[in-house]
């Protein structure tokens, strides 16, 4: 371990211990707990945020998730993705849940989201149950984060201590949803840039892309690879041949744009490291998946190899990167609000 890495590790461990020792969420959901960062007062997130104000929060989330996922297994994937699309636009503030209104141009109409994001009714159901048990306490942004973790766990993936205490935005950014979320045909350079803009690095990119171990994608999102990868009417040469022929029957040259294919056809319902094994064999579904290996960035290729070989290392890093994702620019303290209905501001 290099000296720098050691310092980072020790600093991380210390700040983690510190925030654990000072639970917020005592009394009103925001406590007197604050760190002095950047010279101003800020409220940190903490796993114990609802320890006294709503200790049943996670149990309620899990019981709704279990029923919903038993009926429609894809919801686990959809809810995991929802957290990503929330956090990449204005931070993890439930902006993605707001419907169109006089003051809100909904992110649900953004290019990456329209006819694609799912799971909003499950969030509504969780919110309704939480409002019965702990009125006006658990934010929609925390519900989305809890649902993403719960969906990972219920799919066989890792568990982690989830910092809580996010508050909900009073605004959304349709523009941000069109600008900040990487497209499926992104290059490796593009992906790294989109992630860097959020403060996430190459390790986060490769680990979080592992979420594509569950769920599906529409034909429209990978069609370019089958018929015209480089404007020369040729397929992506990195596609393994049998995989390519199978995809062509699922996804004809004209029509069929809403047909779906699993992102990890080896084990589409199981959160495991098969996704990375497939990438190494030219069987990644999206261009953004395959370029982690073929994009001529040695680090991302190496990381794919590492996670393909060692599932527990993937699980460990996925958890760490999910915590980083969940910590993106949260509203805390007196900022934002706790929405009563996740679809509209109070
Ligand atoms: C690295 C850049 C990424 C790109 C370009 C990307 C792109 C996409 C696309 C195009 C789809 C299919 C959407 C559709 O057909 O309707 C999809 C699905 C999905 N994405 Fe990503 N994604 C990325 C990263 C992530 C991250 C970081 C997560 C979560 C941590 C994630 C989780 C998912 C999941 C679980 C699905 C399946 C959703 C379902 O079945 O409903 N993705 N992604
Ligand atoms: C990605 O797809 C969009 C929309 O289909 C297209 O305009 C753009 O040129 C594509 N980008 C690349 C790098 O192929």
From TrEMBL:
<dbReference type="InterPro" id="IPR010255">
    <property type="entry name" value="Haem_peroxidase_sf"/>
</dbReference>
<feature type="binding site">
    <location>
        <position position="86"/>
    </location>
    <ligand>
        <name>Ca(2+) 1</name>
    </ligand>
</feature>
<keyword id="KW-0560">Oxidoreductase</keyword>
<feature type="binding site">
    <location>
        <position position="95"/>
    </location>
    <ligand>
        <name>Ca(2+) 1</name>
    </ligand>
</feature>
<dbReference type="InterPro" id="IPR019794">
    <property type="entry name" value="Peroxidases_AS"/>
</dbReference>
<feature type="binding site">
    <location>
        <position position="264"/>
    </location>
    <ligand>
        <name>Ca(2+) 2</name>
    </ligand>
</feature>
<dbReference type="GO" id="GO:0042744">
    <property type="term" value="P:hydrogen peroxide catabolic process"/>
</dbReference>
<keyword id="KW-0106">Calcium</keyword>
<dbReference type="Pfam" id="PF00141">
    <property type="entry name" value="peroxidase"/>
</dbReference>
<dbReference type="InterPro" id="IPR000823">
    <property type="entry name" value="Peroxidase_pln"/>
</dbReference>
<keyword id="KW-0964">Secreted</keyword>
<feature type="binding site">
    <location>
        <position position="93"/>
    </location>
    <ligand>
        <name>Ca(2+) 1</name>
    </ligand>
</feature>
<dbReference type="GO" id="GO:0046872">
    <property type="term" value="F:metal ion binding"/>
</dbReference>
<feature type="binding site">
    <location>
        <position position="272"/>
    </location>
    <ligand>
        <name>Ca(2+) 2</name>
    </ligand>
</feature>
<dbReference type="GO" id="GO:0006979">
    <property type="term" value="P:response to oxidative stress"/>
</dbReference>
<keyword id="KW-0479">Metal-binding</keyword>
<feature type="domain" description="Plant heme peroxidase family profile">
    <location>
        <begin position="44"/>
        <end position="346"/>
    </location>
</feature>
<feature type="disulfide bond">
    <location>
        <begin position="87"/>
        <end position="92"/>
    </location>
</feature>
<feature type="binding site">
    <location>
        <position position="89"/>
    </location>
    <ligand>
        <name>Ca(2+) 1</name>
    </ligand>
</feature>
<feature type="binding site">
    <location>
        <position position="91"/>
    </location>
    <ligand>
        <name>Ca(2+) 1</name>
    </ligand>
</feature>
<comment type="function">
    <text>Removal of H(2)O(2), oxidation of toxic reductants, biosynthesis and degradation of lignin, suberization, auxin catabolism, response to environmental stresses such as wounding, pathogen attack and oxidative stress. These functions might be dependent on each isozyme/isoform in each plant tissue.</text>
</comment>
<feature type="binding site">
    <location>
        <position position="107"/>
    </location>
    <ligand>
        <name>Ca(2+) 1</name>
    </ligand>
</feature>
<dbReference type="InterPro" id="IPR002016">
    <property type="entry name" value="Haem_peroxidase"/>
</dbReference>
<comment type="similarity">
    <text>Belongs to the peroxidase family. Ascorbate peroxidase subfamily.</text>
</comment>
<feature type="site" description="Transition state stabilizer">
    <location>
        <position position="81"/>
    </location>
</feature>
<protein>
    <recommendedName>
        <fullName>Peroxidase</fullName>
        <ecNumber>1.11.1.7</ecNumber>
    </recommendedName>
</protein>
<feature type="binding site" description="axial binding residue">
    <location>
        <position position="212"/>
    </location>
    <ligand>
        <name>heme b</name>
    </ligand>
</feature>
<dbReference type="InterPro" id="IPR033905">
    <property type="entry name" value="Secretory_peroxidase"/>
</dbReference>
<feature type="disulfide bond">
    <location>
        <begin position="54"/>
        <end position="134"/>
    </location>
</feature>
<feature type="disulfide bond">
    <location>
        <begin position="219"/>
        <end position="251"/>
    </location>
</feature>
<dbReference type="GO" id="GO:0020037">
    <property type="term" value="F:heme binding"/>
</dbReference>
<keyword id="KW-0376">Hydrogen peroxide</keyword>
<keyword id="KW-0575">Peroxidase</keyword>
<dbReference type="InterPro" id="IPR019793">
    <property type="entry name" value="Peroxidases_heam-ligand_BS"/>
</dbReference>
<feature type="signal peptide">
    <location>
        <begin position="1"/>
        <end position="21"/>
    </location>
</feature>
<keyword id="KW-0349">Heme</keyword>
<feature type="active site" description="Proton acceptor">
    <location>
        <position position="85"/>
    </location>
</feature>
<feature type="disulfide bond">
    <location>
        <begin position="140"/>
        <end position="342"/>
    </location>
</feature>
<comment type="similarity">
    <text>Belongs to the peroxidase family. Classical plant (class III) peroxidase subfamily.</text>
</comment>
<dbReference type="GO" id="GO:0048658">
    <property type="term" value="P:anther wall tapetum development"/>
</dbReference>
<feature type="binding site">
    <location>
        <position position="213"/>
    </location>
    <ligand>
        <name>Ca(2+) 2</name>
    </ligand>
</feature>
<dbReference type="GO" id="GO:0140825">
    <property type="term" value="F:lactoperoxidase activity"/>
</dbReference>
């Amino acid at each position: 371990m290099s000296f720098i890495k050691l310092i980072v590790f020790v600093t991380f461990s210390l700040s983690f211990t510190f925030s654990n020792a000072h639970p917020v969420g005592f009394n009103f959901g925001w406590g007197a707990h604050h760190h002095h960062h950047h010279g101003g007062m800020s409220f940190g997130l903490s796993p114990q945020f609802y320890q006294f104000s709503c200790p049943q929060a996670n149990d309620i989330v899990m019981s709704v998730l279990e029923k919903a996922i038993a009926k429609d297994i894809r919801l686990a994937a959809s809810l995991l993705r929802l957290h990503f699309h929330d956090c990449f636009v204005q931070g993890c503030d439930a902006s993605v849940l707001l419907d169109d209104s006089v003051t809100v141009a909904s992110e649900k109409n953004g290019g990456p989201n329209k006819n694609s994001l799912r799971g909003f009714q499950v969030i509504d159901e969780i919110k309704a149950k939480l409002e019965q048990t702990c009125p006006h306490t658990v934010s929609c942004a925390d519900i989305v984060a809890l649902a993403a973790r719960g969906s990972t766990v219920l799919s066989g993936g890792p568990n982690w201590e989830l910092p809580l205490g996010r508050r909900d935005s009073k605004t959304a950014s349709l523009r941000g949803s069109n600008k900040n979320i990487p497209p499926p045909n992104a290059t490796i350079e593009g992906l790294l840039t989109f992630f860097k803009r959020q403060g996430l690095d190459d390790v986060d990119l490769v680990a979080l892309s592992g979420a594509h171990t569950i769920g599906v994608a529409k034909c429209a999102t990978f069609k370019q690879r089958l018929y015209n990868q480089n404007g020369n009417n040729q397929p992506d040469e990195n596609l393994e041949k049998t995989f390519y022929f199978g995809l062509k029957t699922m996804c004809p040259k004209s029509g069929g744009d809403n047909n779906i294919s699993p992102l990890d056809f080896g084990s589409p319902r199981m959160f495991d490291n098969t996704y990375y094994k497939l990438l190494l064999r030219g069987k990644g579904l999206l261009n953004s998946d395959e370029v982690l290996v073929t994009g001529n960035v040695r680090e991302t290729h190496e990381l794919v190899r590492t996670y393909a070989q060692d599932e527990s290392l993937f699980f460990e890093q996925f958890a760490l990167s999910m915590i980083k994702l969940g910590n993106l620019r949260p509203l805390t303290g007196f900022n934002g609000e706790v929405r009563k209905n996740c679809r509209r501001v109070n």
